[in-house]
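Our preliminary data section would be incomplete without showing what the modeling component actually yields. Below, a chain of 150 amino acids is followed by its predicted structure, encoded as tokens that our downstream tools consume directly.
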Amino acid sequence: MDKHLSKVKAYQRKNSFQFLVTLTGNHGFSKDQEVYIIDKKELEALEDICKSQENQVMECKNQILELKGKLDKYESLKTYKLSDKYDKAINDNDKLRNRFDHLQERFNKSQEEIIQLQKAINRLTTMKFTDRLFNRIPEDVILLLEGKQD
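Predicted structure:
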């Protein structure tokens, strides 16, 4: 917005006054161009209002930037917490998987031992009378019993 300073001159024509504003120098206006004329005090008041609004806009922009920074920090903390929880859940899952595998191995070994013991019991219960009389125990049963004593 361009400002040009000039003085108002008043001429009396018959019963009324005619006012004239004369601009000198390079003012940039063309012939028959419409212009607004405003009092200097009112212009200064408008400029003050504009400056205060510009300051408010700058303060709002600063607050927006500050809030964006806080939001980014919050998002990064939220992501960090979620990734930390995810890592912990993965670790817990791995521990549970290892424990399950270990218990599964123990169960399978126990089940094999039970099957072998059942076979040994079946062999001992189906032994002939003479084998029992002379205390002839089958070799696989003896090996099984020796393995249990170790």
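The chain has a mean pLDDT of 85. The CA atoms of residues 58 and 103 lie 67 Å apart. Preliminary results of this kind motivate Aim 1 of the renewal.
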